[in-house]
Amino acid sequence: MALLTVTVNGEKMSVEVNPDLRLVDFLRDELQLTGTKIGCGKGECGACTVIMNGKAVTSCLVPVMRAEGAVIQTIEGVAHKGKLHPLQEEFINKGAIQCGFCTPGMIMSAKALLDHNSNPTREEIKEALGGNICRCTGYAKIEEAVLAAAARLREGGGDL
Amino acid sequence: MEFMQAKSAREALEALLKARGQAVLLAGGTDLMVNIQEGKAHPQVMIDINTAADMKGIRLEGEELVIGAAATLSEIDQDPLVVKYFPSLAKAASTVGSLQIRNLATLTGNVMTAQPAADGAMALAPLEPRFAVLSEEGERLVPMAQMYAGFGKTALDQSKELVKEIRIPLPHLGEAAAFTRLELRKSLSLPMLNTAAMLKMEQGVIAWARITMGPVGVGPVRATEAEAFLQGKPLTRENAAEAGRLALKNAKPRSNPLRGSKEYREEVLPVLVRRTLEDIGAQLGVL
């Protein structure tokens, strides 16, 4: 076991962990943050995407101890005081969710984009979401949802 | 498994030597983690180089651009120095995997894993970089051609040696480079073929050309016949097309069920080489 100090969704913690774990296992099995999904386990589907130190990463490819000192955000940390983030609301409004398995990863990739670019082009959205695979929606509605959320954030409608 | 955060390249090397072949270095981890998951790697010690201050970042040093072994592909494709001096490398770095992968993966790892279609390595090869390799004996500079031992096999002894950084000589007047890739989809896909080149124009003719292509052999393969043909000739569309045809002489593509048959790849490779050379011609204002 090793001591890991990490901040997850704003909460700083020091915990004993098995260094063999992947970050996604730690989040799901140790912290019970099961919103982050495991799809392919090879970094090819994006379902396990979280934001680590401001950047979207596939948490199945991150050894848990690499998160030492890091700031991690998961889907559970996106809503603020019980109020959904504009991205979450617009995914609902635009019908950008069907089975929902890819959605947490999609939202985290989209949030990593909007956190530093609140006025992305469609191309920039496609690039940011290129590592997230959805087999239900056909992507068009997801793109629409991100554009709509970005517009709301620019108008100050986002409570971040 | 024991996890260790190296504070410097020297510390990483010491930990590597101490583990006597039982340790792995963690750079991006995008291949390593899959190998561990699939039971193909069983390290007893994992040495994280992302915490090593002297292996991070991208900087100019004299007449060279230095890319730390821990610099990610995302850092590289956004870096103003890379974009200014080596736009073809920035472009290639931006095509690897997906954004989430590029936020973790490194250019050095792209070379060390020695896959024949690695985009970052492909664009890097014609720039003639040298790799600063640390071992017990000290530091030495290894040319890129000496980094490969076979398919998926680096020439370095990973139980005793590590790459600290990549050093690329800055381009001179009349020199330019390009990278071209053919893929089934834009994200999360290995290329069906990729090519890169760098050349120097002097008094209206090509002083030298370096052309690399993949996956047609071990690592980025040099199209030496095409390179020799171009030397001393003007960069015209005809010469670029002939160089493309000659490139086949050094290429041994295999059939892949997803990314093209041998026959298809042999049809398309000359076109990609021609386009890569035309791209350079456009950059230099001669085409």
Question: What is the fold's blueprint, element by element?
Answer:
The complex is a heterodimer of chains A (160) and B (287).
Chain A: E1 2-8, E2 11-17, H1 23-30, E3 49-52, E4 55-58, E5 71-73, H2 86-93, H3 103-116, H4 122-129, H5 140-154
Parallel strand pairs in A: 1-5
Antiparallel strand pairs in A: 1-2, 3-4, 3-5
Helix pairs in contact in A: 2-5, 3-4
Chain B: E1 2-5, H1 9-18, E2 23-26, H2 32-37, E3 45-48, E4 58-61, E5 64-68, H3 73-78, H4 80-85, H5 87-93, H6 99-102, H7 107-112, H8 119-124, E6 130-135, E7 138-143, E8 148-150, E9 153-154, E10 162-169, E11 175-182, E12 193-202, E13 205-214, E14 221-222, H9 224-230, H10 237-247, H11 262-283
Parallel strand pairs in B: 1-3, 2-3
Antiparallel strand pairs in B: 4-5, 5-10, 6-7, 6-10, 8-9, 11-12, 12-13, 13-14
How much helical structure, as a percent, in the residues of chain B?
25-40%
User: Per DSSP, what share of the residues of chain A sits in E-state strands of 2 or more residues?
Assistant: 15-25%
Number of helices of chain A: 5
- Largest interface here, residues on each chain? A-B, 29 and 25 residues
SS field, number of helical segments of chain B: 11
Number of strands of chain A: 5
| Rg of chain B (CA only) | 19 Å
Going by helix content, strand content and strand pairing, the class of chain B is alpha+beta
Gist of the model:
The complex is a heterodimer of chains A (160) and B (287). Chain A is an alpha+beta fold. Chain A has helices spanning 23-30, 86-93, 103-116, 122-129, 140-154, and strands spanning 2-8, 11-17, 49-52, 55-58, 71-73.
Explain what the structure shows:
The complex is a heterodimer of chains A (160) and B (287). With 160 residues, chain A is an alpha+beta fold. Chain A is built from five helices and five strands, in the order E-E-H-E-E-E-H-H-H-H. Helices cover 33% and strands 16% of the residues of chain A. Chain A has a five-stranded mixed β-sheet, with helices on one face. Chain B is an alpha+beta fold and 287 residues long. Helices cover 32% and strands 26% of the residues of chain B. Chain B contains eleven helices and 14 strands. In chain B, a hairpin with a 2-residue loop joins strand 12 and strand 13 (205-214). The model of chain B has no long low-confidence stretch (mean pLDDT 97). Chains A and B meet through strand 4 and helix 4 of A and strand 1, helix 2 and helix 6 of B.
